[in-house]
Amino acid sequence: MTVIANTTIISNFAAVGQLDLLRTCWSAVHIPERVYDEIQNGLLQGYEFYAGIDRWVYPFSNNGWLRLTTITSPKEVQLFGKLLASLHPGEAACLSIAHYRRWAFLSDDKEARRAGAGLGVPISGTLGVLLSLVRRQVLAPAKADIILHRMVVNGYFSPVTSLKQILQYSGE
After folding, report:
1. Are 119 and 95 in contact (CB under 8 A)?
2. What confidence score (pLDDT) does residue 136 get?
3. In this structure, are residues 21 and 13 in contact, taking their beta carbons and an 8 Å threshold?
4. What is the CATH number of the domain that holds 71?
5. Residue among 44, 2, 43 at smallest CA distance from 25
6. Domain of residue 154, residue span
7. Are residues 115 and 136 in the same domain?
8. Which of 56, 74, 146, 163 is deepest in the core (most CB within 10 A)?
9. Distance CA 166, CA 55 (A)
10. What is the pLDDT of residues 59-118, one digit of tens each?
11. Strand order of the sheet with strand 57-58?
């Protein structure tokens, strides 16, 4: 399934030097122009983990797997405007695109996830990506927990301290 990500997902993986893990899950991850703007603003504010990100962004790099996309249809524009009442522009853009193009949405933002669920948009977040990598045996559970711990140290709020808690709960 095609996915679109907001800044939180990009930040969590970039902050620990693991942005390529998203590429492992999807050959292309779409980001709207608004998310790209947030990333550039973050870089200007000193978030050095964004440095060099343009080498992964298409069309700035022909080999870019982060695909810059834009709101194009009148319905996407209309939904974007409605969502701005309760969401940041990057999240509103992601959801309007995901809803009308039937893409999945990657976000950890509680309000954005709630709005996406209301629109029937498939949603995952940082934990979902890490769990997917464990289930596909790309990452060992211990390695995924190390990455999760590093994300928490860098500011990610996780509802669990270990992915093992989720894996045990689901019977895996």
Report:
1. yes
2. 93
3. yes
4. 3.40.50.1010
5. 2
6. 127-169
7. no
8. 163
9. 34
10. 999 999 999 999 999 999 999 999 999 999 999 999 999 999 999 999 999 999 999 999
11. 57-58, 66-69, 29-32, 3-5, 104-106, 123-124
